[in-house]
Amino acid sequence: MVEAKIFAGPRVRRIRNGLGITQTAMAEGLGISPSYLNLIERNQRPITVQLILKLAAVYKVDVEALQGESGSAAGELREVFSDPLLAGEIPAGEELVDVSEAAPNVVQGMVKLYRAYKEQAARLSDLAGFMAQAGHETAMSTAKLPMDEVREKLAARTNYFAAIDEAAEQFHARLDAGEDLATAIRSWLKTEHGVVVRTLPIHAMPNLRRRYDRHSMRLFLSERLYPHDQLREIAQEACQIALRDEIATTLDGLDLSSAEARRICRFELARYAALALMMPYGAFLAAAQRARYDVGVLCARFRVSFEQAANRLCTLQRPGAATIPFFFLEIDIAGNRIRRAGALGYPQARFGGACPKLGIHAAFSAPGQILAECAEMPDGTQYLLVSRTLEGPIAGFEERVRRTALLLGCDAAHAEQVVYGDGVMRETGRRLAIGTACRLCERPGCLARAEPPVTRPLGLDEMVAGLSVFDFQ
User: Fold this and answer.
1) Does 449 map to a domain?
2) How far lies 109's CA from each of 106, 119, 323, in Å?
3) What is the pLDDT of residues 396-409, one digit of tens each?
4) Are residues 337 and 393 in the same domain?
5) Is 272 a member of any domain?
């Protein structure tokens, strides 16, 4: 039997664009000529098995991501992306052709979802008109909120910003802080820019974490903040000054659609820069590897919080000095997703993170305790997961404490390198069977099921009742 040729040009190009490298740089890393890589990306040459293995070894590419069937549904896909909601998402029609050829079944699924969306939008429009006639004005919009746009943009890309990270490492070296980074940054702000840092009592700043007074050149911090949170605030302020150009250049490269989205993203990049300054790449990577990624040890060594150290672990993807591709998810006690990110992008399609059986939900019943577990997806993929609660700002008397929970995870293939994998991976009977989300999970008899799966009809039977409240056929 002749082995089917694999034409995966659009997928290779997306991988390269996601890494932010040129054809010449990728060709050099793979040991091929730029012209040959160009032919592969244009689907004029098939990708060989040897090249697939080289991609997996050099750039940590999932081999299955390069498999696909050819087909054409560009016309229908063009209809979808002509909608004003998606205006500007696809810059050229050529990319639509690439997608339709690389994943025809996915295209058909997108077309079905789009038509269902249009039907629901029409019904909502009729309902809005009916309510307006009754004197109830509604403001309905299908546009993406700026915050959602920024979150989706950052969650979908590699969580490493080279220009910011390298500049922050150089800035840390210039500060020559020793073991007292906070004092060094305060001194730099005052000496170089005349900015004085002051901590104010709760009654003076009841609703603010930080306030910068441009007239008096003073940076005020709330005493509600723990020392590591105060350090992040002053580090963020310093980075907005010292790394202004690097942050601006990185922001321009993210192609956001509105001024508000850019403002929000600038703040997120400044927070990233602050963590890069508090935990310089080289020193943090070496410490993480020596400690086998024990977040508690890293907290003590760099005088940071659990959240800050875990967040930093998800950014260690510098070319030539990359490490385990961790990802994280933060939720509140109601299950609202606050943040999610991953070293190579958050694995939304493969992992999801909405399963109610995850330890991140159980963590709220054991504040401060680290819960480690091995979770298994329906397709057999396994993840090493670590969950722990996070404490918000110090609450006053009669104030409710703000508490969230963070999940730090990685593929189980890396478990031997991580201290949390000791024991957990050896106990095969403790595998936690989860799904991406209840509406997409077909595990039968799940006690934690909160919604019926959209892929199966409900199996209601007056004579038989299953363990789940949403039995399905």
Assistant:
1) no
2) 5, 16, 35
3) 777 788 899 999 99
4) yes
5) no
